[in-house]
Design brief:
A hairpin with a 5-residue loop joins strand 5 and strand 6. The protein has 127 residues and is mainly β. Strands 2, 4, 5, 6, 9, 10 and 11 form a seven-stranded mixed beta sheet that branches. A four-stranded antiparallel beta sheet has the order 1-3-8-7, with no helix packed on it. The N and C termini lie far apart (39 Å).
């Protein structure tokens, strides 16, 4: 398994922006699929976005398309989630997750397809 540590959460007003960061402990950061999963209070886990390291393919939940952008810095072993135009419904704990197997034909917007998780960072969108 890989160790993941999130940072960057906080309180922001509606319409504001935050950038979440995830540091990756792997010696190499050139394979696998990495994603962001969130869980709002009293709700189940929701896949937000993923990035496949091998080919750079990305995916987004419909609820965040056009507002959130996932990226990675291989040299720094970091993954990011830029969140713009934030809404109150984006309030949740955000988790960085990884599947180093990067299996084909796998829906990486499903939380159950990851086997390594960070501890989460809290995002609150409120005026």
């Amino acid at each position: 398994q890989v160790q993941l540590v999130e940072s960057g959460g906080g309180l922001v007003q509606p319409g504001g922006a935050l950038r979440l960061s995830c540091s990756v402990s792997e010696v190499t950061f050139d394979y696998g699929t990495f994603g962001w999963i969130r869980q709002a209070p009293g709700k189940g886990r929701e896949g937000v976005s993923f990035i496949k390291v091998e080919d750079g393919e990305t995916g987004y939940a419909d609820s965040v398309k056009g507002r959130f952008t996932i990226s990675r810095d291989e040299g720094a072993k970091m993954m990011y989630l830029q969140m713009n135009s934030l809404r109150p419904e984006d309030t949740a704990n955000y988790y960085c997750a990884a599947d180093l197997r990067s299996r084909p034909n796998t829906d990486y917007l499903l939380a159950g397809n990851y086997d390594s998780w960070g501890q989460g960072t809290r995002v609150t969108v409120s005026s």
